[in-house]
Design brief:
Elements (H helix, E strand, L loop, with lengths): L3 E4 L2 E4 L5 H47 L7
Antiparallel strand pairs: 1-2
């Protein structure tokens, strides 16, 4: 059973594609995986940013109130 790709409503067997079409498919697959990786990195960085903002807020409140909030 050969690999198949679906574009819109049509489905194609990769073995029947031209060399140029296979190269383009490879580029498409690479680009798609890079987008997924960058999206995951964006989520990770957004979580880190939110954590830093929360830590900064906590530090500022601790200094203002003269109390230490949190586990530290």
């Amino acid at each position: 059973m050969s690999k198949r790709i679906k574009l819109g409503e049509d489905e194609y067997e990769v073995d029947n594609l031209s060399d140029q079409a296979r190269k383009t498919l490879g580029s498409l697959e690479f680009t798609t995986s890079q987008i997924k990786e960058l999206t995951n990195l964006q989520v990770l960085l957004r979580r880190a940013k939110n954590s830093y903002v929360d830590s900064l807020k906590q530090e500022m409140l601790s200094k203002k109130a003269g109390l230490l909030f949190g586990d530290d």
